[in-house]
Amino acid sequence: APSSPGVDSVPLQRTGSQHGTQNATATFQRASYAAGPASNYADPYRQLQYCPSVESPYSKSGPAIPPEGTLARSPSIDSIQKDPREFGWRDPELPEVIQMLQHQFPSVQSNAAAYLQHLCFGDNKIKAEIRRQGGIQLLVDLLDHRMTEVHRSACGALRNLVYGKANDDNKIALKNCGGIPALVRLLRKTTDLEIRELVTGVLWNLSSCDALKMPIIQDALAVLTNAVIIPHSGWENSPLQDDHKIQLHSSQVLRNATGCLRNVSSAGEEARRRMRECDGLTDALLYVIQSALGSSEIDSKTVENCVCILRNLSYRLAAETSQGQQMGTDELDGLLCGDANGKDAESSGCWGKKKKKKKSQDQWDGVGPLPDCAEPPKGIQMLWHPSIVKPYLTLLSECSNPDTLEGAAGALQNLAAGSWKWSVYIRAAVRKEKGLPILVELLRIDNDRVVCAVATALRNMALDVRNKELIGMF
């Protein structure tokens, strides 16, 4: 799934953005998104690979967000120097402001950081100069300060400094200064909601840099999951309540954290493995999606992020999980050929006519209990269990956010690909849940990326002979 752009939450008063606000249902520009790694288009049942992370904040869906925060207040009198030649007050020079980050008074440090945030708003040259003069290191040092106000100002400045693809050098510098562990420490210990929004916003901005995706997974995945995503999702506090739904989808912290993980989920096989094995992550993401079904929040950015994470984690499940690697070739052949019914079962096998096999206990046609599933799925099992089909289909039938539609269709495309027994089950479950006409209807939508994902999902569904017949009818 295309990774989401970084976001900058604003600690104080905002200036007006030069960009207009977009609605989630608007027509979205796609041209600015780079193509992903080369795909094998000769294989009609390929799984969907990702697009690389890009940072173009207004070419994706969801409400437009002011890219950087600035201040409407002036620096305090402590951070202004008097010029004796003019007998007046002047604004401090950049080296003076950076030096004030080491002042003995926390109020001066806080105001200096806030003033840096103001100076570098929308100015990449100033951002680069702050880096060259050592300002990023000093701001990172302030993350371990004892005062909350200093944390707030330092995070605001760092958030602006690492915003934008043009500032990847600043992102690398922050990482080299130990900034990611420092942000994680602050996120773990602070209870201030505004600071938590700022910290997760900085991490989201950092996650758009390919070189930082694995460091973020190594240092921040567990804390983002346990300190933000699980508690804010409400997964541990089931059942769903209406007041929680409102709080859930208005949570900027959850939106930022899922945006960060959405970016890093495209970092490759090791990243996917770490995220799949992270306790509670898959459960909480699915819970967020299920809580949004049937409400206006189905089009929210948070839901979009969750769907796109799950889509990426669904890629190459059979090849990258122990459950998939335990599957034997003979068993797979039998499962695939068991998709056909009646006389065709012998003649229309995947590799020509075969001897009739004994019915496998793992075959499932969408009716009755699922083989070998005595207990409800949890954790990584939820990624491939047929029960995941229903929420994906509900999104496809009710959601108007094209990025969420693309993500849900891409997830089904990934799950239905290949000859793994769970892919066979997924194809049967889509038929059972009457999902084929939903997918066919989406071919009419005016969005090429959605149509592409849906069309390839349908091709994978057609590996099931009964699905192929039904698709032809629709």
Which secondary structure elements does this structure contain, and how are they paired or packed?
Layout: E1 81-83, E2 88-90, H1 94-100, H2 106-119, H3 124-132, H4 135-142, H5 148-161, H6 168-176, H7 179-189, H8 193-206, H9 213-233, H10 242-249, H11 252-264, H12 269-276, H13 281-292, H14 301-313, H15 317-320, H16 322-325, H17 329-337, H18 344-347, H19 381-384, H20 389-398, H21 402-415, H22 421-432, H23 436-442, H24 448-461, H25 465-473
Antiparallel strand pairs: 1-2
Helix pairs in contact: 1-2, 2-5, 4-5, 5-8, 7-8, 7-9, 8-11, 9-11, 9-13, 11-14, 13-14, 14-21, 20-21, 21-24, 23-24
Strand order of the largest sheet: 1-2
Number of helices: 25
How far is the N terminus from the C terminus?
28 Å
Rounded mean pLDDT is 79
Broad shape: elongated
Strand content: under 5%
The parts where pLDDT drops under 50 for at least 5 residues are 5-67, 70-80, 328-361
Element order: H for helix, E for strand:
EEHHHHHHHHHHHHHHHHHHHHHHHHH
Major sheet characteristics: 2 strands, antiparallel
Please provide the count of β strands. 2
What is the rounded Rg? 25 Å
Please estimate the helix content: 40-55%
Structural class, by secondary structure, is mainly alpha
Biased composition (Polar residues): 12-26
GO biological process, one term: cell-cell adhesion
Subcellular location: Cell junction
Region (Disordered): 1-26, 59-78
